[in-house]
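INFO  loader      accepted 1 record
INFO  loader      residues=542
INFO  predictor   begin
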Amino acid sequence: MESKDKQWWLLAGYVFLILILSSVVLGKSTKEKSHSLSLATMVPLLKLENKLINNLDNYTKDLEEKLQIIRSQIKVMRSENKKGRQDPISYLSNPLNSFSLIRRLNQDWIKWRKYMEQPAGFSQLINFDSWRDELPTQTDLWEACTGVIRIQSTYNLDIAAFVKGKINGKQYNSSMSCADILAVGKHLVKEKKTKEAIQWLQEVPHRLQKDVLVIPKHLAIEKEEVLKLLVETHLKEKCYTETLDLLDDSLELKPQDAAFMRLRKQATALKTNQANHTLEENKQKKVPIVDNYTLSCRGKINKPNRLKCFYNFTTTPFLRLAPLKMEEIGLNPYVLLYHEVLSAREISMLISKATKNMKIARIHNRNPKNKNKGRTAKAYWFIRKNNELTRRITRRIQDMTGFDLTDSEEFQVINYGIGGHYLTHSDYFNFASSNYTEKINRQGKVLGDRIATVLFYLTDVEQGGATAFPTVGYSVYPRAGTAIFWHNLDTNGNGDILTRHAACPVIVGSKWVMTEWIRERRQIFIRPCLPPAPTDRNSSKS
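INFO  predictor   done
INFO  writer      dumping tokens
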């Protein structure tokens, strides 16, 4: 019987080892998913967490069942043992009692030893390993930390209030745990942004006391770990007085810690040497400059005046029957905001379709190393002629702009994730410049540059997420069903640098947009002052 038990446990261990090894191999081969770049693709993570919670709950039930079995038997065993210890000789004189004692110690307790070794929750461990590949990766955490930092820094939010759930003056029913704050602080340390790291890390120690009451021991953060990290970051920032104060607190916790004692000696020596240089260093300190992009996102740039709202009856004959509501955002460049150009049903259909197959949004860049630099979002491309919905929206864009969309690009639907943004950029490629050679698309057609852009907002955004034109100070905040329109090229076919724009970080909310980039080739007679596409000009000369 014992040999069969051993064989069973060896087989079970072997199967368990195979499962673990296979999960590791699959984990390495599986393509990393950028969960934090789109809120839409983060929704399955909540379902995954629910499965993990249920799995852990089943694990506790297995443990409780085992515990109940042991406790029920302890009562029986203790009662029999107590009866024997009251009068040992009398008890053992009975052969039934003495035999039972020998047999229990020879057989039962060996079986109890095996029962104690037997792992509870074996099936739950297998479940967890099968879901391991669906968990966010270290890259996901890095992107999430970057997004949180981007929100805080772009909008100059108070960190102490931010971690408590007070975001941009509004209190939310949420907050960051010590582990959350520590993760952001460690990320900043790795990025060598020690000054910013200190502001986050210093929020951890005084919150640890509350966490001790609710956090299990294996998830708890050691105060010494946080203090040591704070000491090291203060040393890098040459804040020696604060470093010594932290080391005093650390030595109270661990009076004989060699690392803390060595750091205190180092900080004391550096503080003495610093006295001669402090005055000169203060003179050299510069006030940080806030760029136009950040000011635009914060709404700190003065808006243009002498603007108006009106109905558009004239772009196409159809608008005489159903004019569009228009609002001027700015005059140079001329940017228009169209109201109520998408219905709630149309928006729902677009988002529903896009959510199923979102991919990381790429940047058109001639330098492959900078392919995703400055953009955090996921996108889905709609074929404009694919169904009645997209064909209807195409006709509406023609009514809005007066342009021919035959050879223009497909619709790109985009969803932004944690702190999702797109840094200042131009939509045009500047084909008119002499050093640009990419003039033909994959199908061999010469489509010309992006003459104009139409950007639809599919959702409201509670805070942040504006489309900003930093050079001229325009800021447009997302409202579901609206769309902005502007020309990227001047009348000579050159890119208008004033149209450089950015998607400001989303603070709170899920930002969905849809973009249509209109190509210039088909507009040669619609906008006659615009020269033909480059190849056409060359062919006419020949």
